[in-house]
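// run 5 | inverse folding | seed 20
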């Protein structure tokens, strides 16, 4: 099917002016409509649909079928409304004037080559080995290296990354606001809790329901567009994530932990996976890596202080061998380089 130019539905002269200016700057073409029937005719054939903040509720009432490349367009004062509707519509938010460059790309049809951050999952090969603590520790070390970092907690049966980071009471959206997310959604960063300069998506309290895979993928994709590194704690209830670029597998040196890890590895593709050993047990780290057929990228010391810090909600920001190990693991996660945005 031949696609027609991008379409904007709005009656706001400011939005129309800026969108047309972006179209001119990108060499793209933009159609502007304000009536339902005009948009219905272009809904399936336009390369992208831009919905102004002034027309969102009206467009929703038309009950048009779902499609890709839908964007909500508005200014800072409309951000909460834009984010509220982006999840049910499966639409991204472009906030002006800061999003002018992205808007130009959308109108010109150049959205596929947008740079995204690295998505890394941290899985425990067995319960209680400290995967959540390692995930939080990597986030703290990455943030200290000036990376823009997001932590995503997808384990309804875990203790909660927000507790580890001391952010249980921090204001912002939890998964209860994001479970219906699907597709390419808005930049929800400003709506999420933060701790130690790190963006967080945490489980809501009192729920043991797993996060829907579609919502998890949508939120991770959203965060990857605005962060250098997205660290995911999937727990033991989440299947294979398509957005993950690298997987860190954590195990202790005990025979039981390694046996459990072996079973865990059979549940998903181990491409771009690597092993981290937490000291404790009789099996050598090298022997453990060979048994699991994974590269060994780090050996974590068994720090007795970590449980006490977690109970007090103090992020695992340690020095010495712990920090050195996390830095080494982080280098592997980032492809042996750590290019911070804007640096």
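// decoded
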């Amino acid at each position: 099917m031949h696609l027609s130019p991008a379409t904007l539905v709005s009656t706001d002269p400011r939005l129309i002016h800026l969108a047309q200016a972006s179209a001119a700057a990108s060499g793209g073409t933009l159609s502007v409509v304000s009536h339902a029937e005009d948009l219905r005719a272009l809904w399936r054939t336009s390369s992208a649909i831009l919905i102004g903040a002034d027309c969102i509720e009206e467009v929703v009432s038309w009950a048009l079928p779902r499609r890709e490349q839908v964007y909500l367009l508005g200014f800072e004062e409309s951000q909460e409304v834009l984010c509220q509707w982006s999840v049910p519509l499966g639409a991204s938010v472009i906030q002006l004037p800061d999003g002018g460059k992205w808007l130009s790309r959308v109108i010109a049809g150049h959205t596929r080559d947008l740079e995204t951050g690295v998505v890394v999952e941290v899985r425990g090969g067995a319960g209680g080995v400290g995967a959540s603590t390692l995930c939080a520790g990597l986030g703290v070390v990455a943030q200290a290296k000036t990376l823009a970092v997001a932590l995503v907690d997808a384990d309804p049966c875990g203790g909660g990354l927000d507790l580890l980071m001391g952010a249980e009471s921090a204001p912002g959206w939890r998964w209860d606001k994001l479970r219906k997310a699907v597709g390419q959604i808005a930049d929800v960063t400003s709506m999420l809790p933060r701790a130690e300069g790190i963006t967080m998506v945490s489980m809501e309290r009192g729920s043991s329901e797993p996060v829907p895979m579609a919502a998890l993928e949508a939120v991770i994709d959203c965060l990857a567009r605005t962060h250098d590194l997205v660290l995911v704690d999937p727990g033991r209830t989440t299947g294979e994530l398509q957005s993950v670029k690298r997987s860190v597998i954590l195990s202790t040196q005990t025979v039981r932990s390694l046996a459990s890890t072996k079973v865990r590895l059979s549940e998903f593709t181990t491409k771009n996976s690597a092993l981290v050993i937490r000291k404790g047990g009789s099996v050598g780290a090298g022997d453990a890596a060979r048994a699991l057929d994974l590269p060994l990228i780090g050996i974590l010391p068994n720090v007795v202080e970590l449980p006490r810090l977690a109970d007090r909600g103090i992020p695992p920001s340690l020095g010495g061998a712990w920090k050195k190990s996390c830095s080494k693991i982080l280098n592997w996660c980032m492809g042996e380089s750590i290019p911070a945005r804007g640096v």
